[in-house]
Amino acid sequence: MQNDRYDPALPVVKACRRAVGRMGFALAVSMGLTQLISWGLLIWLEREFPGSAENPWISLTVGTLPIYLLGMPLFWLMVRRLPYAYPLEKHRVGFGATVCFGAATYALAYVFQMTVMLGFETLRQQTGMDYLEAMPELPGGSPLATALMVCLVGPIMEELFFRRMVLRRLLPYGRVFAIVVSAAAFGLFHGNFFQMFMAFGIGLGLGYITVRTGSLKHTVFMHILINTYSSVISFMLEYYPIAATVGSLVIMAVALAGVVVLVLKRRTIAYHLRPAPVDQGRCLMQAAKSPGVWLFVLVCVGLSIWLVWGV
Fold first, then answer.
1. Which of 151, 174, 276, 279 could form a disulfide with 228 if both were Cys (CB 3.0 to 4.6 A apart)?
2. Residue 203 has what pLDDT?
3. Cα 142 from chain centroid?
4. More confident: 140 or 246
5. Average pLDDT in the chain
6. What is the CA radius of gyration of the chain?
7. Domain residue spans in the chain?
8. What is the pLDDT of residues 7-62, one digit of tens each?
9. Above 90 in pLDDT, residue 193?
């Protein structure tokens, strides 16, 4: 009777629970520790060298390099023994497919961005507080610093981290599971409520592209393009509002084209998300119930609340 009740998927589910729990705990520790280090360095610099924290080179460097140089290696040390899918089977894609991938990624990002903006607008009407206005902005004053840290270093390091270290350690439990969970981690990593949802949409697109092509070169290129375009739009909003409006219309057009791609290619997309070693909903439930995952969520949500209300 006991053999009749044996669940052949149970070993995979248990391995998934252990892996996602350890990865959630590692993400929480690495991100929490490096954020404390960044804040401590900024406080020390401001005390020893008043006004230095206002320098965009210093604020961007102190705010980002600890997670790249300390947090990511720490995460790797904590999860290095977990099984991972490597190397991925590589598939060459042409220019047309790359354009379609980019449009679809923008569509996902735009949908989630519009959803969160509607949510913030509803909250503003209910509470009278403009949450979008309260969101922290990137330090200004140095386009070169922004270009280097936000448009080059950040995309490369984040792709190596989320699409290589994180995604590939989730792939043994299914492609849908790996893409969704790595995208959620990527969104939470951004540390504020506005960027979280947009980054989740981008993470879904970049995760699929990684699985589809087996390479990071497409995702690195698209990540650089997305960050660069967003930074240019932000700059134009301040100095060239008409040009920014035109740029926003271009984003809307690309997003609309991406929606068309997602609809027309839905069967092809679904095909490349198979097979799965176990029911993907079951694995996602393991992630949702994991204490390590919830610890990471609490760290990121706490950081987001601190950034908005300054508590």
1. 151
2. 96
3. 25
4. 246
5. 87
6. 20
7. 10-309
8. 778 888 999 999 999 999 999 999 999 999 998 998 898 888 888 877 878 888 88
9. no
pLDDT in tens, 245-289: 888 888 889 999 999 999 999 999 999 898 888 899 999 999 999
pLDDT for the residue 3: 54
Amino acid identity of residue 16, one-letter, is C
Angle at 141 between CA 137 and CA 146, to 5 degrees: 65
The position carrying tokens 């140095």 is 142
Structure tokens at 302: 């706490």
Contact 257, 250 (CB under 8 A): no
What would the two tokens of residue 266 be? Answer: 């839905």
> 3-class secondary structure for the chain?
CCCCCCCCCHHHHHHHHHHHHHHHHHHHHHHHHHHHHHHHHHHHHHHHCCCHHHCHHHHHHHHHHHHHHHHHHHHHHHHCCCCCCCCCCCCCCCHHHHHHHHHHHHHHHHHHHHHHHHHHHHHHHHHCCCHHHHCCCCCCCCHHHHHHHHHHHHHHHHHHHHHHHHHHHHHHHCHHHHHHHHHHHHHHHCCCHHHHHHHHHHHHHHHHHHHHHCCCHHHHHHHHHHHHHHHHHHHHHHHCHHHHHHHHHHHHHHHHHHHHHHHHCHHHHHHHCCCCCCCHHHHHHHHHCCHHHHHHHHHHHHHHHHHHHCC
Q: What's the token pair of residue 282?
A: 């079951």
Instruction: Count CB atoms within 10 A of the CB of residue 192.
Output: 18
